[in-house]
Design brief:
Length: 205
């Protein structure tokens, strides 16, 4: 093991230390990855998890539908027990899914059913969330990367989006070769983005 030498920074004798003061050291800007302020997320996949106390807030979409934002969950059991997960749960109907919403999945996964045997009211949904948020559910967890400088999600999942959005931007993925990397470079500004684990689906039954 090489011997270490202590010295005052104001009295560096480069020749005595045997170090070239002009030698480039460290990592190139294009390759440098900063230490993360967030822990490495659990791998993409299926988990059991539950909501944490105070782990959500209500919002209203432009179409008048309810959504849950700032959702906080934690993995239950297994190797990643206690690992933190994020979530955004909308009751907005989407073109690719006409027979259910994420918010319906969320409350039905905890056993909630509409009182009239057909459709939930908004009030029933709110009550169901309040009563079951901390229940253990099963679902699919993915990774997302949000660039605060660009103000948008720039990375999601293994391979990102298959198509560009209306602005001509395509969300990238975290898969590098055959390995998932929890850090990805923002394709817009070059900032290094750390993955956050996010619940993407809730399994009913």
């Amino acid at each position: 093991m090489a011997e270490e030498t202590d010295f005052m920074s104001s009295n560096i004798d480069w020749e005595e230390l045997g170090i070239d003061p002009n030698e480039e050291v460290g990592t190139a800007d294009s390759e440098y990855v900063p230490t993360s302020q967030f822990p490495i997320p659990p791998p993409i996949g299926n988990y059991e998890f539950q909501g944490t106390d105070g782990g959500y807030a209500w919002g209203r979409g432009n179409d008048g539908s309810l959504y849950l934002k700032n959702c906080k969950f934690s993995v239950v059991g297994g190797e990643f027990d206690g690992k933190k997960l994020d979530g955004f749960i909308s009751n907005r109907a989407t073109p690719f899914r006409k027979n259910g919403t994420d918010l319906e999945d969320f409350i039905r996964a905890a056993g909630a059913v509409p009182k009239n045997g057909s459709r939930f009211t908004n009030a029933e949904m709110v009550k169901a969330v309040e009563e079951t948020f901390n229940a253990i559910r099963k679902g699919y967890v993915t990774w997302e990367g949000y660039c605060s400088d660009c103000g948008k999600t720039v990375a999601r999942g293994k391979n990102g989006a298959t198509k560009e959005n209306k602005d001509g931007f395509r969300v990238v993925g975290f898969l590098k070769g055959e390995t998932l990397s929890p850090v990805v470079q923002c394709p817009l500004c070059g900032k290094m983005i750390t993955a956050r684990a996010k619940v993407q689906k809730f399994y009913v039954g």
